[in-house]
Amino acid sequence: MASTPAPQTYRVKSFGCQMNVYDGERMAELLASQGLSPAAEGNDADLVVLNTCHIREKAAEKVYSDIGRLRRKDGSSPLIAVAGCVAQAEGEEIMTRAPAVKMVVGPQAYHRLPEMIAEAQAGRRVTDTDMPAETKFDALPARRKSGPSAFLTVQEGCDKFCTYCVVPYTRGAEISRPFKDLIAEAERLVAAGAREITLLGQNVNAWTGEDFSGRAVGLEGLALHLAKLPDLRRIRYTTSHPNDMTDALIAAHRDNPKLMPFLHLPVQAGSDRVLKAMNRSHTAESYLKVLDKVRAVRPDIALSGDFIVGFPGETEAEFAETLALVEAVGYAQCFSFKYSPRPGTPAATMDGQVPADVMDNRLQRLQDALNRSQVAFNQATVGRRCEVLVERKGKLPGQWLGKTPWLQSAHFVGEAAIGDIVTVDLIEAGANSLSARLVALTAV
């Protein structure tokens, strides 16, 4: 087989969740450590990594569309690697349907990209979707770059086996990264400029480990130790499962001042029958009781969640229960999706698949309710004085954008720089952002 010149430039394109964003960053760091440079904007890359997500509808078909768009005007293609959850779920089919793809690598094997690139250069097409017992993180380069807000994967995989979800099959069983490794990576991120760290996991609040004294700790213990890093100002975590919201983690929202007043806690539906069919292992009532506990210790908490409409067998009355739950909670923001079957999941073969037009109608009604809730939350914060972490410049002269403690986007005009934490007064609320007046640069 003909050999291919060694790639000099790369581009990593990540889709979907924050875990994929983190994985994309780590792959970029890995490629940079091998001497590759990121392709300049508008230029073709020698190597393109499509870091895929299998949660969204028609995710696999979108991958093939992206592969087709990578073909150059002269008919050639870059060296293409498909990574992520679609790669894990459909690796062999990708190789069959897309001859331009030279590498397929699952989310637990991307640390092997350098060896796979070498094999692809030699003219071989290679697939690695193994889930090895040894952690990939040990093979990745140390973190040396960071923006003001950084992701840190602390846990991967899921043991919950919700009937609609492919994560247990594409990411494997729950595994917690060691405490000492996480502290070391966080220290490097902070040294590189991170002021905020978001702890990531498919089921992040299931993380467990042993601290430096050998004491067993949960996510609250990890967050407590991270809070000791003086230059780290904010800590967040996502995504959580209601059954793993321990009393200790809830109390941390009161006791750890660096833990931001924001909680993303997916419920998926308001009907207990639907929740049972989803294998969610909680009820609407037990979910609301968890939220009551959180609000008792942190009354200003901003709540977020996920919803699926049109799960097989969902009736109009059951959908109405979802709308009632939304009204009861008062979410600050949410994600909502139409159910779409995933091959190999139990829900894909359930009776009572809901017609597409019914799902479209329910999704629109749900999103209308969620949008009203978000606007109401934003309006309720007008008049508050809070800190904003500056993340980027705005579109207007002298304008800056950043996040409030409640993960709202806020913009203001004044003297600031990326990475600053400034004190502002929130003066006007829109559906998706707030206007603010700069008060002062917050002292560190």
Give a written overview of the molecule:
By secondary structure, the chain is of the alpha/beta class. It folds into four domains: 9-128, Rossmann fold; 142-260, 2-Layer Sandwich (Transcription Regulator spoIIAA), CATH 3.30.750; 294-381, Transcription Regulator spoIIAA (2-Layer Sandwich), CATH 3.30.750.200; 385-441, Nucleic acid-binding proteins (OB fold (Dihydrolipoamide Acetyltransferase, E2P), Beta Barrel), CATH 2.40.50. 32% of the residues lie in helices and 24% in strands. It has twelve helices and 21 strands. The strands form six sheets. A six-stranded parallel beta sheet has the order 2-1-3-4-5-6, sandwiched between helices. The chain has a five-stranded mixed β-barrel with strand order 17-18-19-21-20. A three-stranded parallel beta sheet has the order 7-10-13, with helices on both faces. β4 (79-84), α3 and β5 (101-105) form a beta-alpha-beta unit. α2 packs across α3 (85-97), α7 packs parallel to α8 (247-255) and α11 (316-329) runs parallel beside α12 (356-381). The mean pLDDT is 91.
Stretches where pLDDT falls below 50 for ≥5 residues? none
- In the CATH hierarchy, the architecture of the largest domain is 3-Layer(aba) Sandwich
Name the CATH class of the largest domain: Alpha Beta
Largest sheet: 6 strands, parallel
- Return Rg in Å: 23 Å
Q: What is the domain tally?
A: 4
Per CATH, the superfamily of the largest domain is Methylthiotransferase, N-terminal domain
Spatially, the strands of the biggest sheet line up as: 2-1-3-4-5-6
The amount of beta strand, in percent, is: 15-25%
Average pLDDT rating:
91
Question: Within the CATH hierarchy, at the fold level, what is the topology of the largest domain?
Answer: Rossmann fold
Helix content: 25-40%
Distance between the termini: 59 Å
